Amino acid sequence: MYLKNREIEGPDQLGKGWDTPDINWYPGHMLKAKKELAKQLKRVDVVLEMRDARIPVSSANHDFEELLQQKKRILLFNKTNLADEDTTRKWKAYFKKMDTPSLFVDALNKQNLQEILPLSRKLMQEKWSNFRKRGIRPPSLKLLITGIPNVGKSSLINRLSRRKAAETGPTPGVTKHQDWIKLGKDVELLDTPGILWPKIENREAGLRLTITGAIKDSIVGTSLLSDYLLGILMLKSPEQLLKHYQLTEENLELLPADLLEKIAEKRGCLKSGGAIDHPRAESLVLRDFRAGKLGRLSFDLPETEE
């Protein structure tokens, strides 16, 4: 349907074979949240910038760079349980080489969350030491968490606070307000809504952001999303794809749009009369991927790997 050229070297070339529309989703509450975030920064010691471990580059909000350049910052890469393990190891090595404070976490399963506060305190040691030399007791640690929509900020906060302090949901845009949350007697954290940037110029990054849940499916359309995703899965996770939908290896020779029809037949995504219910099948594939049923997959690769 959208695939023009089957001579594709790898998944990073896939987006170049589709007619991809401009992908922009910047509702009013995001602009408001960005302005409020800028006002609060003076009160903040350390910024926790949360990204998706499957798309460490595509999920970086470059609008934050100038805004946060004077702040101590930790990059938190969430959803490692859904990312390819080998690619994640390479990303860890990359950020270590770049001397970037970073942690790869899984908020859902509490993986590595215990390292966040110690690392935050470590970044503040020099400033706190100067306070103590002047006979001043260091103030409480003030953190701010920010990132793209639906990256798992609220789940992380609920794990750190050990209560449901933030609302969670499967679609982007659940958090609309900024709230200070106590994580202990000497730690406070400011929760902020997920923020994108006004114009996503890299269309492939836009597709990756949508497939991983940061942008509403309706902005792009499930037809293009499922087509793009199946093309990548056929290259990077064929065994899991075939196993989950009970397909044969011959099906990997099909175009993604034709493979979708095979999946629809297997899963009963049919209209009355037996015609393929394409929207239903497209949503099924996207839902299965986001639930981790189609294998662990990373879209962005470190520079040396691309």
From TrEMBL:
It comes from the Bacteria. Keywords: Cytoplasm, GTP-binding, Nucleotide-binding. One of its GO terms (cellular component) is cytoplasm. The keyword GTP-binding applies. GTP binds at N150, V151, G152, K153, S154, S155, G194. One of its GO terms (molecular function) is GTPase activity. SUPFAM superfamilies: P-loop containing nucleoside triphosphate hydrolases (SSF52540). One of its GO terms (biological process) is translation. It is found in: Cytoplasm. Pfam families: MMR_HSR1 (PF01926). Its main location: cytoplasm. InterPro entries: G_CP_dom (IPR030378), GTP-bd (IPR006073), GTP-bd_ortho_bundle_sf (IPR023179), GTP-bd_ribosome_bgen (IPR019991), GTPase_MTG1 (IPR016478), P-loop_NTPase (IPR027417). Coiled coil: none annotated. Residues 34-198 form the CP-type G domain. Belongs to the TRAFAC class YlqF/YawG GTPase family. MTG1 subfamily. Required for a late step of 50S ribosomal subunit assembly. Has GTPase activity. This is Ribosome biogenesis GTPase A. It comes from SAR324 cluster bacterium. The lineage of its organism: Bacteria, Deltaproteobacteria, SAR324 cluster. The gene is ylqF.
